[in-house]
TrEMBL record:
Its cofactor is Zn(2+). Residues 310-451 form the Peptidase M1 membrane alanine aminopeptidase domain. This is Aminopeptidase N. InterPro entries: Aminopeptidase_N-like_N, Aminopeptidase_N-like_N_sf, Peptidase_M1, Peptidase_M1_aminopeptidases, Peptidase_M1_dom, Peptidase_M4/M1_CTD_sf. Its EC number is 3.4.11.2. Residues 54-225 form the Aminopeptidase N-like N-terminal domain. Pfam families: Peptidase_M1, Peptidase_M1_N. It catalyses: Release of an N-terminal amino acid, Xaa-|-Yaa- from a peptide, amide or arylamide. Xaa is preferably Ala, but may be most amino acids including Pro (slow action). When a terminal hydrophobic residue is followed by a prolyl residue, the two may be released as an intact Xaa-Pro dipeptide. It comes from the Bacteria. Belongs to the peptidase M1 family. Keywords: Hydrolase, Metal-binding, Metalloprotease, Protease, Signal, Zinc. Residues 1-27 form the signal peptide.
């Protein structure tokens, strides 16, 4: 994610140069939870007893009324006997639930949908759940995190789920560790454009004035990265470096012709540094959303109102770091935002901007008593998980301190090995520490403690010899 207010201002090369000139940097899980502890920041999310393999989302949406008529089909495997199971869901009224084709009892309780199948599910069984629901989904407006989930727009809707907004428009197991593949079958009045993650599967089908398009995400995806965008869009398609690139913008705004080529350039440049691009297509969508941030939705980020080169570089970097290699819990969000922010610094240095060292040094001049240092980058707290100083900037500084300590060769080897060995998986900070120590043959525990687990200004790292 990248907020437009602070992040884009601080991210532009001009603003960084101003900084260089001396401006201050400013400032309950059910029984069995012992198997996998709940997320420390979102303990209500995620469910026990099964593993989702695939979501098939049939979404019929009418922009004029914002009415969604939907059927979600979830294919999952049971880890243990299931007399009942729970899904994360806080969307419109449920009309029917089926398990393996038979009507199932269901109950809604807060953000949970509890399903009791006619017959218990055997351990190891692969089972299918169908949930039919209808109504107008509503966004989550969180005092600390802002607006997310299903956002209705004047000409349609867009879904931006980070961190736990997917439940506003479909039932799921909203646990970062339970990735799955997706099919989106979106039906709208003919003439409306519908986009999602991944690639189109076959041509649009039109009948009785309504058109259905199908998109498929064939690689594992966490729920927070799922996305649909429905409305009036101008779509551009090309194939760049063998990779389909599909971008779109809402013509009531503008894209300055930047999004499509900037996406292709960012992917090409980052492939060279990080290794193979993890998904089967790329792209981006500019919509008039009004939430004030861009989000790295898998394979195709969404930008609110417009974008710029560095924001595209940031969201494309997340395809490796965040989308393919995903933190196991939200506490480690610096593994997303630190890497994406550091990628901006690398890009700037390579494109005539300040050097990474200059950017680091400027931020490091921030006095020890400044609030800049007063959260733990490796555990900023639920309400501060998107704190720009603590998570984005100090996350990127942590990577630079690591680079300084282990040297360029080991550091860039680490970036690539991290992306390759944990592709489509979930990780924590301990995994990064172990890999960095293995590659560099150094004890890096004290460095990680000082930079990630201390709410204070850390000492400068000792350069590699
Ligand atoms: Zn981000």
């Amino acid at each position: 994610m990248m907020r437009r207010t602070r992040a884009t201002a601080a991210a532009s090369a001009a603003a960084v140069l101003l900084l260089l000139a001396g401006a201050p940097a400013g400032a309950a899980a059910p029984a069995g939870a012992a198997l996998t502890p709940p997320d420390p920041y979102f303990p209500l999310g995620g469910n026990q007893g099964y593993d989702v393999r695939h979501y098939d989302l049939d979404l019929d949406f009418t922009p004029a009324s914002h009415l969604l008529d939907a059927r979600a089909t979830i294919t999952a495997s049971a880890d243990r006997p299931l007399a009942s199971f729970r899904l994360d869901y806080s969307g419109p009224a449920v009309q029917e639930v089926l398990v393996d084709g038979r009507a199932a009892a269901y109950r809604r309780d807060g953000q949970k949908l509890t399903v009791t199948p006619a017959r218990p599910i055997r351990p190891g069984a692969v089972f299918g759940v169908v949930v039919r629901y209808r109504g107008t989904p509503e966004r989550i407006s969180d005092p600390a995190l802002g607006d997310y989930g299903w956002i209705n727009t004047p000409d349609g809707a867009v879904a931006l789920n980070e961190p736990d907004g997917a439940r506003t428009w479909y039932p799921l197991n909203d646990d970062l560790r339970d990735k799955a593949t997706y099919t989106f079958r979106i039906t709208t009045p003919t003439g409306v454009t519908a986009l999602a993650n991944g690639e189109p599967a076959g041509p649009p089908q039109t009948r009785d004035g309504r058109t259905t398009v199908t998109w498929q995400m064939r690689k594992p995806m966490a729920g927070y990265l799922s996305m649909v965008a429905i409305g009036d869009f101008r779509v551009t398609r090309s194939t760049d470096g063998g990779l389909p690139n599909i971008t779109a913008y809402d013509p009531t705004g503008s894209d300055d012709g930047l999004l499509h080529p900037a996406t292709a350039q960012a992917v090409a440049w980052e492939r060279k540094r990080f290794g193979a691009y993890p998904f089967d297509s790329t792209g981006g969508i500019i919509d008039q959303v009004g939430v004030g941030y861009a989000l790295e939705t898998q394979s195709r980020p969404v930008y609110d109102g417009g974008t710029d080169e560095l924001t595209v570089v940031h969201e494309i970097a997340h395809q490796w770091y965040g989308d393919s290699v995903t933190p196991s819990t939200w506490r480690d969000i610096w593994l997303n935002e630190g890497f994406a922010t550091y990628t901006e610094w690398l890009w700037q240095e390579d494109h005539g901007g300040p050097t990474v060292q200059q950017v680091f040094d400027t931020y490091y001049e921030t006095p020890a008593g400044d609030p800049f240092w007063n959260l733990e980058t490796g555990d900023p707290g639920r309400d501060e998980m998107f704190n720009y100083d603590a998570v984005y900037i100090r996350g990127a500084m942590t990577l630079h301190a690591l680079r300084t300590t282990i040297g360029d060769r080991d550091f860039f080897d680490l970036l690539r090995t991290w992306a390759r060995t944990h592709r489509y998986g979930t990780v924590d900070t301990g995994d990064l520490l172990r890999l960095a120590e293995k590659i560099s043959h150094r004890d890096l525990g004290p460095l990680f403690d000082a930079w990630l687990h201390t709410a204070a200004k850390p000492p400068l790292p000792t350069p590699a010899r």
